[in-house]
Amino acid sequence: MSHSAQRRWYPIVFSIAALVLLPLSVLVLSWHSVDGEIWRHLWDTQMPRLLGNTLALLLGVGTGVTLLGVSLAWLTSLCEFPGRRWLDWALMLPFAIPAYVLAFVFVGLLDFSGPLQSLLREWFGSGLRLPRVRSTGGVILVLVLVFYPYVYLLARSAFLAQGKGLMEAARALGQSPWQAFWRVALPMARPAIGAGLALAMMETLADFGAVSVFNYDTFTTAIYKTWYGFYSLSSATQLASLLLLAVMLVVYGERRARGMPRPSSERPRGRALYRLHGFKAAAASAWCVLVFLCAFVIPVLQLLAWFWQRGRFDLDERYVALILHTLWLGGCAALLTVACAMLLAFARRLVPGRTMGTAVGLANLGYALPGSVLAVSIMLAFSYLDRELVIPLSTWLGGAGKPLLLGSLTALLLAYLVRFLAVAFGPLESSLARVRPSLPEAARSLGVGGSQLFQRIYLPLLLPGTLSAVLLVFVDVLKEMPATLLMRPFGWDTLAVRIFEMTSEGEWARAALPALTLVLVGLLPVIGLIRRSARQPG
To answer: What is the model's pTM?
Structure first.
């Protein structure tokens, strides 16, 4: 490719990177004017509690997902016990359940007036009370059950990749299975575990729906209340910048703590190393089955029961409108995001170098931005553009002089693009890396170039990765709550918004229909993940 042709990629990549950096710049500039009265009120009434709750969640969820994910990964990858083969993939199914869905199922099932406690009072007397589910422990339990698959999946892959030679060498040196795990397998898997832990903690910081169901105040709920309670978009943006700072500290700390990956020349194992018997085998099966029941089976059965009890009566024209809005937003966002990610992937391949690599890296920073952070920053930027540019121009042209960007679908689609660009970029970059440079070079030598080269050579080879990227972004957009809730235009409710409205009113049964729809759609990428994982030996 000529130097002039390479230079054409720079404006494209820099423009996409600028879109991602727009929210970051808005967050920094929001501090030029501080509403002292609102901040004094927040500090006197909420800030200490927000900090305490957020730190408690990070500590509890971080500890829980590590213990749960690593223990399950160790059992399913290295041990043989009854049910191991189907539990190996079944433990990935909780990926399909959004955190806010599992949250309202747990509250509806375990609350004082819920079916479980009501049944127990009938059996054992009216004085029986279980611990309050609307508590710090309840929130932590739900988030651990939702986010442990991040650690489980990565730790399982790391354990499988270690081969059997290292474990056998440790056993030959007199190490017990537990000592071999603690001294050999765990240190080597630490980078993968750390990456999964960082993802779980970022999701915890960004969560809005689950903590709202539990009425548990964190920075994400404070952003929403500041925006809609105090009508102060600037103060909400400043709170969002503090949340983003916490996310960045988590990412930085994880990268410093995990160190460099340790390559292994071992061939992946084809079977488990340790065959468990008796009590140990029963305990391993019981532990894995218990997690699977609590994280997937019981919530889905409860949603089905609520659907049959009340949710099926909501199958009307309004629900059809919710489906159409959700599908339209998901489809448009997926196509837009995958198109931009495709451009980034080709730019990185065709124009190698530090400058292009840095620009592409900046364009993929958006996944670290919580939806609530994106919402307030983009809305603040669009509010400024409406006030300073759109309204004066419309008035000058004889128009109504009304804001066009604020509260528009354009703002919402931009938030989705920034948030999920990295999700689409990963599968596309992997697919493009498998295309040997000799193929397009041979096509050019035969006179095939430009758009024909893309259509005849690249597109067929990139089709599986492209479909995976579209599906991943589509499902993530369907499940996304905070940005959609804060930025949707009037009348553009989605399934996630419907769930929020129903759970805010305690209508668990009426929230079951949209929740089941999201779970069923969310199973599609999880099934693909299970199929790819099944190709690994183990």
So the answer is: 0.81
